[in-house]
């Protein structure tokens, strides 16, 4: 089950200053912003050594620049240094409590390491924040995390809440179809997939689930049609 990404923006608006008004301090703040942006660019290209170098340089220029802590946390996490990653995630949040991107990424980090309760608390803090314009994405991530933590009832509740926020969210519909398939409730699987594929292009996952549902429900013709579609669109 996949996460919905709320990644740190490539271009970081604004810059946290240290309060100084001298030109040298302003130049350091701007340099920290630039190096953080470069760190993110390198990380997205998979060049984590250069990303780390740029992020460390940004922090040396302005230790209170929250996006630099957020960026280096992601880099440490990618390199397997969980202690440093967690330290910088927490530092970024302490410096900028409104940074929902960092909260989401820290929640993913926590969930992947088995700390489900902590992760769900972070996901919910993002979803309940009135300034965030896509709470359904955070709720879907919470559902994925609850599923990973063997809490299927809680996961389903999150996915259904995501649909209350955005009734035609294709990822929430797909997740609910997958959960229904585990219960072998094939009528529900069919209904969720049909709703999902009305609002988004069929994916490999949705077509495979649809085929299983039609086979289980005894509609061989529809199953054959969907199988041909799967082979045609995803050769």
Describe this structure in words.
With 235 residues, this protein is an all-alpha fold. The chain has helices at 23-44, 48-61, 66-79, 82-95, 100-112, 116-127, 135-148, 152-165, 170-182, 186-199, 204-216, 220-233. Among the domains are: 24-97, Serine Threonine Protein Phosphatase 5, Tetratricopeptide repeat, CATH 1.25.40; 170-235, Serine Threonine Protein Phosphatase 5, Tetratricopeptide repeat. The protein contains twelve helices and no strands. α1 (23-44) runs antiparallel to α2 (48-61), α5 runs parallel beside α7 (135-148) and α10 (186-199) runs antiparallel to α11. The radius of gyration is 21 Å and the shape is elongated. It starts with 22 loop residues before the first helix and ends with a helix.
CATH class of the domain at 24-97: Mainly Alpha
Mean pLDDT: 90
Helix content: over 70%
Beta-strand percentage range: under 5%
- Can you tell me the CATH topology of the domain at 24-97? Serine Threonine Protein Phosphatase 5, Tetratricopeptide repeat
What is the chains' assembly state? single chain
Question: Structural class, from helix and strand content?
Answer: mainly alpha
Name the overall outline: elongated
Number-wise, the strands total 0
Sheet of most strands? none
- Order of SSEs: HHHHHHHHHHHH
Identify the CATH homologous superfamily of the domain at 24-97.
Tetratricopeptide repeat domain
Whole-angstrom Rg: 21 Å
